[in-house]
Amino acid sequence: MSYEVIIPKPVKKQLDALPGDVRERILEKILSLVEDPRPSGIKKLKGFDGEYRIRVGDYRVRYAIDDQALTVLILHCQHRKDIYKS
């Protein structure tokens, strides 16, 4: 079962602002969510309904999973000091 990963325009801008090597590692992790949206090492976020996060160095990717529609919506991709403020 493959999921569709959706990266909205604001998140693409966040990705474009990252250093090149970090951006490549994050995109690799995001694309791996197609096959397994709940890989080992993810955390379900408390206080954020139905959201998960992946760590990539000092950066975090927040996303939501819709098992009915088989989609993964990327919500934010920011440095760990900024990611939980929004």
Characterization of the model:
- This protein is of the alpha+beta class and 86 residues long.
- The protein has one domain (4-85): YaeB-like fold (2-Layer Sandwich), CATH 3.30.2310.
- The chain has helices spanning 9-16, 20-32; strands spanning 4-6, 43-44, 51-56, 59-66, 71-79.
- Strands 1-5-4-3-2 form a five-stranded mixed sheet.
- The longest helix is centred in the N-terminal third of the chain and has 13 residues, at 20-32.
- The chain is globular and about 35 Å long.
Name of the CATH class = Alpha Beta
How far is the N terminus from the C terminus? 31 Å
Reading side by side through the largest sheet, how are the strands ordered?
1-5-4-3-2
Tell me the CATH topology: YaeB-like fold
Number of distinct helices: 2
Low-pLDDT stretches are none
Estimated structural class: alpha+beta
Biggest sheet character: 5 strands, mixed
What's the architecture in CATH terms?
A: 2-Layer Sandwich
Count of distinct strands: 5
Mean pLDDT: 92
Question: How are the SSEs ordered, and which strands pair?
Answer:
Elements: E1 4-6, H1 9-16, H2 20-32, E2 43-44, E3 51-56, E4 59-66, E5 71-79
Features:
86 residues; alpha+beta; YaeB-like fold; five-stranded mixed β-sheet; 2 helices; 5 strands
Compose a concise summary of this entry.
The chain is of the alpha+beta class.
